[in-house]
Amino acid sequence: EEHLFNRPISTVMVRDPVVFTVRGMRLDQIECLLARSEIKTFPIVDSHTDRHIQGCINRAELHYAIRKAKQLHGIQENAHCYFESLGVTPVALTSSNSASSSTNPSYSSPSSIDFGAWVNYTPFTVDPRLPTETVLEMFKKLGPRIILIEHHGQLRGIVTRKDVLRALHQPTFVSKQDYFGPEDEQGLAVSEPTAPEPDMEMGTVTRRRP
Asked: Which ranges carry the CBS domain (predicted)?
């Protein structure tokens, strides 16, 4: 792991990942993204212009929720989807005798569905300047599937254990100029200040609160 020493996680993270927005998406759009992407966990943000992190959702659980909603409640392909709690009473997708029919998507009509019950509102997040070896230790000790890279609450990228291990086995570094392009080494736009602010604790792990 020597060649990862002090290498910021921004050099390893996946930039511009597929995301879901809290509101404004249709079911057919979500299914299209699921078909086109192999990502296991999807970040949820306010909008495509305001990428403030709201949580994340697991691919397998989302697939299951969609399938059951179609089978039992006739959810339409153009149904409006929400990834937040709208105060709608959850509708059981399995029989009352099921041993584990815990979290199920709510819905107000066949034209809308709320996946809020499936959202993880406290994902692991780190600053883009955190050393990669520190993030690797997080994966080893805490076992998250994915870690979101954020700056002031805004999503900058995502990283998985596989991404870090792949970087571990890279024989050489890529140059900063070739790798970063129009962004700096923290994964921030060049027009943004890159110096740490007094209240930022770059060495800490953040577990977002709802």
From this structure: 119-174
Closest CA to 117 of 195, 194, 64: 64
Helix residue ranges, H only, the chain: 27-36, 59-73, 132-142, 161-168, 176-180
Strand pairing report for 20-21 and 41-45: parallel
Which CATH number belongs to the domain containing residue 158 in this structure? 3.90.1280.20
Amino acid identity at 168 = L
Domain region containing 81: 20-118
pLDDT value at residue 73 = 78
Is the pTM here over 0.90, yes or no?
no
Domain end, chosen from 94, 118, 142, is at 118
The distance of Cα 117 from the centroid of its chain, to the nearest Å, equals 16
Three-class secondary structure of residue 66 per DSSP: helix
Distance CA 64, CA 62 (A): 5
